[in-house]
Each structure stands twice: as structure tokens, then as C-alpha cells.
Amino acid sequence: MGAGLATLIDLQSSLVPRPWLFDLVLPEIGGGKLERSRLEHIRLPATATALRVSGLNQTSFEYLVERLGPQISAIQFWKCPRVADLSPLEQLGQLRLVSFYWNQKARRLWDMSKTPELCGLLFDDFTQLHDLGDLATASSLRELDFGDAVWDTAVFETLEPLAALIGLRSLKLSAKTIVDGAWNPWGH
């Protein structure tokens, strides 16, 4: 991984140009639409080990993972609400850090046993994700941050899968409700 890129904070706070970061965030406030045809012309510099991207739909997401993913060990998905299936990430065994902000389609994460290097995961404002079962397969996870960032809508069935994360050093959770009653800050 690039020098200076070891944690989720490093990935998210890189507002100044870094040789290890390739930025594909579109200027539109809603994230824009990054079509596969635009990705076909992108060549990552040899120094790039991290990617920040917005506006992906399912097709462009799959193409990005297939074409650019093998060079990348960290990805920040910024406003990619139209990606429903995250399982293509299973192809990226070298993936160490993943950050997602705002998704309206995904109902599950992915089999994280296929990304054994994954040590940091952030996913905020996923409106359809209620089952955290895939987290139990994240054997090397040390940082986990999930739930609500902007909208107070995160509802999770249970936090039980977190019990499998024996190497976890940092946990940040913000949710409206945990259905099995394990956590409900508003007492509803």
C-alpha cells in the first residue's frame, strides 16, 4: 500500500493530491454517472494503489473492479447509489481498505473471506442493507465504521456477526435501530 495509506482515515482524508491516490470523483452533487465507456480510457499511474470514485452503476462497478481493481489495495466509493451487487469485490484478494458512502440498492456486502487482506471497512447510508452476516467472514478486519452518516435510517437485524471479529480494534456504529433489541438508542 502507498506510503501514508494505512487506515480508513488516511483514505478518506486525502483531499490533497497523493501519488498513491487516483481520483475519479465526478463534480455533480449526487455523484454523477460514470459510465463504462469513460472507464475504458483510464490508465492508472504505476504509483496508484488507491482509488476514489463516484457515480458507478452496476455495469461500471463490475468493469472497474475487473479492469482497475488488480492494481488497487484501497477504494473509496463516494456516492455510488446504483450498485446492487458488491460480490465482484471478491475478485480483489489484495484489497485492504474499502469505504462506501451512500448506496440505495445493495442488500448485502460480499464474502469477505475472499478479501483476506481487508483490514478496514466503512459503509454509511446503505438504505437496503439490514443483514450484517457477511461481516462474520472478515477475519482480518481491524477497523469497522458503519451505519448512518447523513440520514438517520440504518436498521440492522442484529449485531451478532460482530462477535466473529476477534481482531477488531476500532468500531464506530450509528444506527436508528437494531431489530433484535441489542441496541436502540431511542428506546422505541
Characterization of the model:
- The protein is of the alpha/beta class and 188 residues long.
- The protein has one domain: Ribonuclease Inhibitor (Leucine-rich repeat, LRR (right-handed beta-alpha superhelix)), CATH 3.80.10.10.
- It is 10% helix and 22% strand.
- It has helices at residues 8-12, 36-39, 58-67, and strands spanning 21-24, 50-54, 74-78, 97-103, 120-126, 143-147, 155-156, 170-174, 177-178.
- The chain has a 7-stranded parallel β-sheet.
- β1 (21-24), α2 (36-39) and β2 form a beta-alpha-beta unit.
- The longest helix is centred in the N-terminal third of the chain and has 10 residues, at 58-67.
- The model is unreliable at 184-188 (pLDDT under 50).
Brief synopsis:
This protein has 188 residues and is an alpha/beta fold. The protein contains three helices and nine strands. Strand 1, helix 2 and strand 2 form a beta-alpha-beta unit.
